[in-house]
């Protein structure tokens, strides 16, 4: 049985609701329990001068007055129970305070990103409607969150509730009230526009050449994702990749980048350039069992051989041989793909790590490359990485090569490939193609 709120004349609903809310308010002012729902009253939090290191959430049910006004009184307690049950699915055993259409709690989820995701999930669950005593009730809500841990709960309650009202006004699921508000809001809005950005061409892929020092030829390229926002201009991958990882959107981006990279590798091949194509794979994605299938599918669609694709990985946690990530790396290599260890030297990667990881390439991190001209230690480090990698038959790439001197130094150290602004910045594929054909023409001529 589904009852539509609209069937009850609107003014009637409003009147009943107002009267009921008034009485509830009075009761709550007096006591610490909400008589309608039986939950602790928000007033109890307002009376508290305690500090808490937890994020405070205020969830505002938009049509609450209308709903409880249209049903018998006992429905409110049942509805509240159902709402509490759903909140606790992801935010286990929290104490939930109640007042009118507001449900307030101190979340057990520590990161605002995770909390946001949970609220998104809760929104999806609640959207399907809630059954109370055989009646389907349609609910919609918005949330305000407060993370200013150094303020007393009494004042944080007001902030979180205000933020919830702001969320209703701006039609956003969550609004944050705190000093970092700007940034959090920006990240959340970034995330929501990311999916759209991939579809409408704001997200694109830049290509940076890899120069082989022995042959003096461009033998490969690294695909680097770019986002040109129509209002905010370019947004660096350092900014949005992290957010995409946290919100589990990285698979979509990676699929997009690999698809573009494989497509251009085939186009290069048709133009007579046999090049390897490198793509960056987040450590998080290495724990996704669907990765090998996704890659082989893309290769098959475009008709590129797997040994032309290099997966750059930055996993620097100690990888033990029985770990899922290690098994994934082996699977990828067995399917013919190549692996490269990115940012080598920055993590806790040791010679042992290098020895058992099935990677064919090592990329020396740009911080060492750019400082080796001025620092003896860094020069020594670069030199020993090259020697160590060569002793294990790994190809060595130096990234961040910005000057002719650095290039010469690396050549003398026996480095195999270089990548950096001195050769070329990452550029759109059309520019990459003219760059390599210009070089070829000069080499031939
Ligand atoms: P990375 O993989 O270490 O990529 C190299 C970064 O160094 C790139 O920054 C590149 O533009 C920059 N670079 C290249 N040559 C020079 C140079 O001579 N000097 C200096 N100072 N920098 C140079 P970018 O494009 O901003 O990418 C930053 C990071 O974002 C990448 O670091 C990579 O970890 C990540 N990233 C980029 N694209 C993707 C992607 O498609 N997927 C994933 N998961 N991560 C990506
Ligand atoms: Ca890389
Ligand atoms: Ca790197």
Secondary structure blueprint with pairings:
Blueprint: H1 10-30, H2 42-46, E1 56-61, H3 64-70, H4 74-90, E2 96-99, E3 102-106, H5 112-127, E4 130-132, E5 135-137, E6 141-146, H6 153-170, E7 174-177, H7 181-199, E8 203-212, E9 217-229, E10 233-235, H8 237-246, H9 250-270, E11 276-281, H10 291-302, E12 309-313, H11 324-334, E13 338-344, H12 351-356, E14 361-364, H13 366-371, H14 376-391, E15 395-398, H15 404-412, E16 417-418, E17 427-428, H16 429-444
Parallel strand pairs: 6-7, 9-11, 11-12, 12-13, 13-14, 14-15, 15-16
Antiparallel strand pairs: 1-3, 1-6, 2-3, 4-5, 8-9, 8-16, 8-17, 9-10
Helix pairs in contact: 1-3, 4-5, 9-10
The structure holds ligand C2E and calcium ion (CA) (2 copies).
Structure, briefly:
The protein is an alpha/beta fold and about 450 residues long. The protein has helices spanning about 10-30, 40-45, 65-70, 75-90, 110-125, 155-170, 180-200, 235-245, 250-270, 290-300, 325-335, 350-355, 365-370, 375-390, 405-410, 430-445; strands at about 55-60, 95-100, 100-105, 130, 135, 140-145, 175, 205-210, 215-230, 235, 275-280, 310-315, 340-345, 360-365, 395-400, 415-420, 425-430. It is built from 16 helices and 17 strands.
